[in-house]
């Protein structure tokens, strides 16, 4: 397993040498969404607290570092940490409210959706942060401003983010913290009865998850060069974040990565094949049908299915 | 497949090979006449044709396609040996990340220029791609001021060498100034002096930028009328009855709405139902008040409504011919702001290629900068030119009014097809 | 602040709330019985609107009569979706159900885009043009009728669940699926019927609102989110809660449009949602705790 990981990382490190800019862009989004999915995985997968409001953390992190860069000239390399901390604080607030008041399942889903929507509406109505027009970042290609003339640098940055989040998850999985989170997901009441301070561990999980997601916000801002409330706080982004780990297998370390490697190419292929001609929208019907197919045929996600398959081959 | 922009590209070896190869066959979606002939210039046309802004996005796509076909039918780019324009189509889904990927995909498939999109967030995400890969990019709509200005700034400050981004659509600031001027002209022509204007707008990117431009221009011009109440609504709205009650309570003489098609369908009937007693509805740059589909749905509610919008110059017979064909191909839609500017955008690209006599990006950019194009179909203050930040300062609007269930130009005088009916007759 | 404006806002909000109620009743029924969160709810509603539009424009059927057919059409859609898709993942983790319904939503939205194009539509009905005036306050007749029909439909659904054998088995399955299984109920059929009825409710709501609210293919998401809010505020699984919640949210948003910048009015319902989640997570009419 360890060897497989080393080989995979070596391959990914070497790939840009042979990839074109389009393929590199596809990989960048595979890594970036795998990173966001991995961050979500901590609270949504391992701890089983479904958040469909993670866009709030992306947006807050993105707006924080973009505002600091535009108005105070602070480099996004530091701004991204500030954004992460601000998002973590929001995570703590949402977590405190949600866990203190015992919101579980769909109730927690809606609490997170509501927070993201509230941020979206406030940003839309606040001229100070650009309102609906949003913020626009000048593309200079200056590395000190987290901008790169060469797309391949973004590739390594996003790969680094994905490996960072995966490293964090691997650490969690190997420590008592991870075991507690899984126990909370499986049976929170039993876990409490055994004397585990579930509130504390859930809080820790959402804060770490929000911090990492907030860092991702800076990448979003400085790779896409503008922020609008509807795109960074909107429900569609939250959905993008959750579907990859779910497809790959939530609560598994490889789930978000696998999900991202499955879904992004599928989205590209369906758009390439089906977005021509008069049937506008066909490619999203195909993509939607593929999502349905994944649920029906891999109801636990891709990774658990893959692992079963590998075990069967071996044994 | 052209790899001219990135010599190190060897994507055929990757496991994404299929995706790349498929991208190259995009051309199969086009009429056989275009495919059979060489040489061609490939132009990536990227709009959000699905998602919340699918309506304007599809109009833009069709406008660009029709212009390219017209250019090809007239012999293509003559200075390039009659090269035909071959369009590669992209869909942003109104998502900036998809916009960026689509730009890369089409450039990878050989696009030598890009045109599009409607949404400003999408355009901003495409800017670094064209700057990195040196692909001239003509923005046909996306109206947020900073998109071009930021690139110009980076070039001025030496952080970027060449500006590859240009725009032929008016910015929010221009819209506001023209609207205030037209309001005054119409009031004066009618010999009335309305005092109280209520500004109502969809609180999305376009509505907010238009309302800001309008209010700023009003402040600067200090006309004899006041904006007594400003009422933004969340877009898309589920209900506007309370907003209209609030507007009514402000005792307006004029309602100045900036809608989207869906919110116009809510707003106008509501104004009638609540019997808001006004001289007229005059939009300071609003979609939703003139499209054929809107007229079909709203009927009498749109009669006498005025709007200051970028508009095709129907005094030009070519415009009328294009509009007829557009109606046929779109299932009866009006050739208007979005389709018109995308159509003009393709003409501007063809003009630049013609003068460049080359598809080398820097040569094309030089040609774009020197543009003085007079073959445009839209009402304009002069030929299409690009200023130091890459915007077209002659992009203009016309004041149109729905008369007899058809939009007609009523101002400026030189483009006017009829005299405005204002104040509107009492019902 | 103008008293007439406040009165008008209250009345307009209340009458519009009927639609919200009906749409939320459908969602709460599906959730109550199956514990499945229907992320495609708003998109089903949009299809209800398009069905009403086709009936009106092709066959000249007024939506105030055509809503019955739309409800029927959506019943079939709901029944089929449940039988072929949802039924296979009732026991899967929550997140898989969400993913499934997101996929269904994507298919429904873009199928509407392919079928009807992106332009917003609105059904014309003679009723929606007429108004009654009570002094300075006006009553929108179309909304009044919509409101009345929404009350009637919710009442009818309540009677169905309380009085008919099939309705009782739906309720039994909602309360205790294993118990229902033990006493010999065909739980799968009951589930499909419940999903069908939930879809029929939202189909009827779509048809009834089609003369009032313009619709386009991408409109489903915001309708879904509005339905979720209402259902949580009213109490998940409670018919009465969904009904009252719909009225409450609509009136609150209307008051938001009176007292705040109207573009902030959605903030009112989301704030209400958070307050309810924190202080009464079972909702106004829900039983027990979350």
Topology readout:
The complex is a heterotrimer of chains A (315), B (427) and C (290).
Chain A: H1 2-14, H2 21-46, H3 55-72, H4 76-100, H5 106-124, E1 135-136, H6 151-174, H7 176-186, H8 188-193, H9 198-224, E2 226-227, H10 229-232, H11 235-248, H12 255-274, H13 282-297, H14 302-314
Antiparallel strand pairs in A: 1-2
Helix pairs in contact in A: 2-6, 2-9, 2-11, 2-12, 3-4, 3-5, 3-9, 4-9, 6-7, 6-9, 7-9, 11-12, 12-13
Chain B: H1 17-24, H2 32-36, E1 40-47, H3 54-73, E2 84-91, H4 96-108, E3 113-116, H5 120-133, E4 137-139, H6 146-156, E5 165-167, H7 172-190, E6 196-202, H8 205-221, E7 226-233, H9 241-249, E8 254-258, H10 261-273, E9 280-283, H11 292-298, E10 306-309, H12 317-329, H13 337-356, H14 361-369, E11 398-403, E12 406-411
Parallel strand pairs in B: 1-2, 1-3, 3-4, 4-5, 6-7, 6-8, 8-9, 9-10
Antiparallel strand pairs in B: 10-11, 11-12
Helix pairs in contact in B: 3-13, 4-5, 7-8, 13-14
Chain C: H1 3-34, H2 41-59, H3 63-84, H4 94-116, H5 126-129, E1 131-134, E2 137-140, H6 141-163, H7 165-175, H8 177-182, H9 187-209, H10 220-234, H11 239-259, H12 265-279
Antiparallel strand pairs in C: 1-2
Largest sheet of chain A: 2 strands, antiparallel
Total number of strands of chain C: 2
Mean pLDDT of chain A: 93
Beta-strand fraction estimate of chain C = under 5%
Descriptive notes:
The complex is a heterotrimer of chains A (315), B (427) and C (290). Chain A has 315 residues and is mainly α. Chain A has one domain. Chain A has 14 helices and two strands. Chain A has a two-stranded antiparallel ribbon. In chain A, α7 crosses α9 and α11 crosses α12. Chain B is α/β, with parallel strands linked by helices and 427 residues long. Chain B folds into two domains: 194 residues, Response regulator (Rossmann fold, 3-Layer(aba) Sandwich); 155 residues, 3-Layer(aba) Sandwich (Rossmann fold), CATH 3.40.50.2300. Chain B is 42% helix and 15% strand. Chain B contains 14 helices and twelve strands. In chain B, the strands form two sheets. Chain B has a seven-stranded mixed β-sheet with strand order 7-6-8-9-10-11-12, with helices on both faces. Chain B has a five-stranded parallel β-sheet with strand order 2-1-3-4-5. With 290 residues, chain C is mostly helical. Chain C has a domain of 201 residues. Chain C has a two-stranded antiparallel ribbon with strand order 1-2. The longest helix of chain C has 32 residues. The radius of gyration of chain C is 19 Å and the shape is globular. Chains in contact: A-B, A-C, B-C. At the A-B interface, α2, α9, β2 and α12 of A face α1, β2, α4, α5 and α6 of B.
